[in-house]
Design a protein that fits this description.
It is built from 6 helices and 11 strands. The protein is an alpha+beta fold. The chain folds into 3 domains: 32 residues, no CATH class; 66 residues; 118 residues, no CATH class. The strands form 4 sheets. The protein has a 4-stranded antiparallel β-sheet, with helices on one face. β9 and β10 form a beta hairpin. It is elongated and about 75 Å long.
Length: 243
């Protein structure tokens, strides 16, 4: 089976008068579109194309196409019903897979060889609180050598639409040199001290705490300003790097 494609945009490239095999056309479209986000949707599209090709060969083999339109329609009815039911079930499964992300994922321990998702440094070689982000839809984990690196990554515009849970160490229950992974807390509910005299990975960082009282006590001892999660932006992080 071959398909003529004239003036169709496939994966961002405009083809004019190009002949592509049907499988190549389907594969290119699936790979370059939003459908790529769902493996079940890809299976549905490819399965539909394969089923349609098989039906066409069967119809030609039995010479049904040569008969009258009424007979062709009558003969094709069982096939059409079967394909419609199959495709609908696959489509509903794909939609269900997309619409039900994991609601809660526990933080993971930081292992000895884990590298920072942002800078590539070995995380446990540095003092101070660390961070991690876990995508709730697919469970992918990004670990960071400091709270500053995690927040710098998270505040980038392309990451704001991610469904993710963010975690940081509660430094009220951890040693600064060796943060305790048993005390990773929800980063969005934490309080942060920016501008303290203590250093984290590669310089200034934000000390993180579960409670405001702990953050204020740390700031009195080591300097800095207490901030909520929603008060931290890229400008704050840039000013932090100047200390």
């Amino acid at each position: 089976m071959r398909v003529d494609v004239t003036g169709i945009n496939v994966t961002g490239t405009r083809f004019t008068g190009t002949r592509l095999k049907g499988a190549e056309l389907i594969g290119s479209w699936v790979k370059g579109s939003w459908v790529e986000r769902s493996w079940m949707m890809r299976a549905w599209i490819i399965g539909s194309w394969i089923t349609g090709s098989w039906m066409k060969r069967s119809l030609i083999k039995e010479s049904w196409i040569k008969r009258s339109p009424v007979k062709v329609s009558w003969k094709m009815t069982p096939w059409i019903c079967w394909v419609a039911v199959l495709n609908l079930s696959l489509l509903l499964t794909a939609c269900g897979d997309e619409q039900h992300p994991l609601t809660s994922i526990a933080p993971l321990a930081i292992e000895g060889g884990d590298e920072c998702h942002l800078c590539g440094m070995i995380i446990r070689e540095f003092p101070g609180p660390k961070g991690e982000a876990i995508e709730t839809r697919h469970g992918r984990v990004a670990k960071f050598c400091s709270t500053r690196d995690m927040l710098s990554w998270w505040l980038q515009p392309e990451h704001q639409s991610l469904a993710a849970q963010l975690y940081v160490h509660d430094m009220a229950r951890s040693d600064w040199q060796h943060p305790d992974d048993r005390h990773l807390i929800d980063a969005t509910k934490a309080f942060y001290v920016a501008g303290s005299r203590l250093r984290g990975a590669m310089g200034p960082t934000l000390a993180s705490f579960a409670g405001r009282g702990s953050a204020e006590s740390f700031a009195r001892e080591h300097g800095g300003t207490v901030l909520r999660f929603d008060q931290i932006n890229l400008e704050v992080l840039q000013q932090l790097s100047l200390h």
